[in-house]
Automatic annotation (TrEMBL):
The gene is ohrR_3. It is found in: Cytoplasm. GO terms for cellular component: cytoplasm. PROSITE patterns: HTH_MARR_2. Pfam families: Staph_reg_Sar_Rot. The keyword Protease does not apply. One of its GO terms (molecular function) is DNA binding. PANTHER family: ORGANIC HYDROPEROXIDE RESISTANCE TRANSCRIPTIONAL REGULATOR, TRANSCRIPTIONAL REGULATOR, MARR FAMILY. This is Organic hydroperoxide resistance transcriptional regulator. The keyword Transcription applies. SUPFAM superfamilies: Winged helix' DNA-binding domain. Its main location: cytoplasm. It comes from the Bacteria. One of its GO terms (biological process) is response to stress.
């Protein structure tokens, strides 16, 4: 019991620390900015922004997906997603098509150029993985913890 109390006394969260270095939110923010910045030159070569790349990842995983499903996968509102899709369509990478059985639903399809871009994009995860400098196990642990954090925060 004393050990648990000693650990709580050393825990900046338990103590209500307002030091920047003790804030998990800042560590997440700084890591996110650093990783996203590392993506930029790689994605510039593909003609994509980071959010557009995320949309393409969903479509490369499963072509012919509804706009709603893409929004759910990326945790984006349609007001944020729509401009991304318009730019990807204007670039000739995707096409939007109303479903015949439900006019309200729009399906997204890769164009041949969008499908071809997948092969060029295969170098991106490798380069980012190398830049992160984490082992496969560390990457898996980080993904697991970040997903758990997201679930916990969005649930509450």
């Amino acid at each position: 019991m004393d050990q648990a109390m000693d650990q709580a006394a050393d825990d900046p969260v338990e103590q209500g620390s307002l030091l920047l270095q003790d804030q998990l939110c800042f560590a997440l923010y700084a890591a996110s900015r650093a990783v996203t910045a590392r993506y930029r030159p790689l994605l510039d070569e593909l003609g994509l922004t980071y959010p557009q790349y995320l949309v393409m990842l969903v479509l490369w995983e499963r072509d012919r997906v509804s706009v709603r499903d893409v929004g759910t996968a990326l945790q984006l509102e349609s007001s944020t997603l729509s401009p991304l899709l318009k730019r990807l369509e204007a670039a000739g990478l995707i096409r939007r098509e109303r479903r015949a059985d439900d006019e309200r639903s729009v399906a997204l399809h890769l164009t041949p150029a969008g499908a071809e871009l997948r092969d060029k994009a295969r170098t991106v995860p490798v380069a980012i993985g190398e830049a992160m400098g984490l082992s496969s196990e560390q990457q898996a642990t980080a993904r697991h913890l970040l997903r758990l954090l997201t679930e916990n925060v969005t649930r509450g």
